[in-house]
TrEMBL record:
It catalyses: Endonucleolytic cleavage to nucleoside 3'-phosphates and 3'-phosphooligonucleotide end-products. Keywords: Endonuclease, Glycoprotein, Hydrolase, Lysosome, Nuclease, Signal. GO terms for molecular function: deoxyribonuclease II activity. Belongs to the DNase II family. Pfam families: DNase_II. This is Deoxyribonuclease-2-beta. One of its GO terms (biological process) is apoptotic DNA fragmentation. Hydrolyzes DNA under acidic conditions. Does not require divalent cations for activity. Participates in the degradation of nuclear DNA during lens cell differentiation. Its EC number is 3.1.22.1. It is found in: Lysosome. Residues 1-23 form the signal peptide. PANTHER family: DEOXYRIBONUCLEASE II (PTHR10858), DEOXYRIBONUCLEASE-2-BETA (PTHR10858:SF2). GO terms for cellular component: lysosome.
Length: 335
């Protein structure tokens, strides 16, 4: 398989603003450049029929101030898209070399390089300025941005160690070294810490929204959904991850809390796409269960991804749950 294809297949954007540490100014931003506590987006796939005028750059958008999905005004490749607006702060911080700002960017396949490693947790951000790769158009992609105060970064620091991130650009000024142990080491490429198989932590956004973060290393060799997340959250899960033919794990009802593969997504009454066209990675509680969780992350339900590090950030926010629940067209039952 070519490097280019692999790059396409595994693109996922998982932005927790990990590592941008100046609490007061740096924030997730909407398309107008205004600070928001969190946002989530769903970039729609470019379907292959001739009649379609889709560019593969349109996205659905939801944030802490809106009630339900809306269509983006901007295309994902624009610097005024939510990713462009949010990441602009990183490029500014990087340019000013201000010692009160820290950042860290990681990627399993560094932008524009053909080298690419399956071992690492994956997330993609170009280093020189905002850009959206042509390979990211064809399939669906989803992500979440959360604004955290600095007091959450000790916990984030520990989670990041488990991810074994392939960091290609970072700056963690000495001011931060008292509280953050792993980030400076990871940044210097010299971490000697023992990596736990998995780790769970609670996080709180700047405005108090609660999240639960699941991080697994490449030594936790199991299906993160069935073996861990569903049982931990005590909920049956519907999972939407990339379904590659002959590489999918079937829906799984062996353990007390089941996992069902979503097979198709509906964007509106007349518009839908198959999970084969979707590189988004998320799951929600089954409608019938009491706990309404939504998780967004960077691992597929595939036997091959048991060997990868990565994770999911989960919340019981009802607005996020209803938005993702509304996208489910149908899922596969257990045999
Ligand atoms: C984004 O993509 C659209 C559609 O392909 C193209 O017309 C536009 O020039 C691109 N914008 C940027 C900033 O690359
Ligand atoms: C660094 O950032 C701080 C806080 O935003 C600001 O007060 C200061 O002027 C900046 N220094 C430089 C050299 O840009
Ligand atoms: C940060 O930069 C300012 C301005 O350049 C300098 O005065 C200060 O000593 C620096 N602080 C640290 C901890 O390096
Ligand atoms: C369901 O998942 C668990 C945990 O990964 C695994 O042990 C079990 O074999 C799976 N069941 C089936 C039928 O695949």
């Amino acid at each position: 398989m070519t490097a280019r294809l692999l790059g396409t297949l595994l693109t996922v954007l998982f932005l927790g603003l990990f590592g941008i540490l100046e609490a007061t100014k740096i924030s997730c931003r909407n398309e107008d450049g205004e600070a928001v506590d969190w946002f989530t987006f769903y970039k729609l796939p470019k379907r292959q029929d001739e009649a379609s005028r889709e560019t593969g750059l349109e996205y659905l958008y939801l944030d802490s101030t809106t009630r339900s999905w809306s269509r983006s005004k901007q295309l994902m490749n624009a610097t005024k898209s939510v990713l462009g607006r949010t990441l602009q702060q990183l490029y500014e911080a990087s340019a000013s070399e201000n010692n009160s700002t820290a950042y860290l960017i990681y990627n399993d396949g560094v932008p524009k390089s053909v080298n690419y490693n399956r071992k690492y947790g994956h997330s993609k951000v170009p280093e020189e300025g905002y850009d959206y790769p042509p390979t990211g158009r064809r399939n669906g992609q989803a992500g979440i941005c959360i604004t955290f105060k600095y007091n959450q970064y000790e916990a984030i620091d520990s989670q990041l160690l488990v991810y074994n991130p392939n960091i290609y650009s970072c700056s963690i000024p000495v001011t931060f070294h008292m509280e953050l142990i792993h980030m400076p080491q990871l940044c210097a490429g010299s971490s000697s810490s023992e990596i736990p198989g998995r780790h769970l932590t609670t996080l709180q956004s700047a405005q108090g929204q609660k999240f639960l973060h699941f991080a697994k290393s490449d030594s936790f060799l199991d299906d993160i959904f069935a073996a861990w997340i569903a049982q931990q959250l005590k909920t049956h899960l519907l999972t939407e991850t990339w379904q590659r033919k002959r590489q999918e794990l079937p829906s799984n009802c062996s353990l007390p809390h089941h996992v069902y593969n979503i097979k198709a997504i509906k964007i509106s009454r007349h518009s839908y796409f198959s999970s084969y066209q979707d590189h988004a990675k998320w799951c929600i509680s089954h409608k019938g269960t009491k706990n309404h969780w939504t998780c967004i992350g960077d691992l597929n339900r595939s036997p091959y991804q048991a060997f990868r590090s990565g994770g999911f950030i989960c919340t019981q926010n009802q607005q996020i749950y209803r938005a993702f629940q509304g996208l489910v067209l149908y899922y596969e039952n257990c045999n």
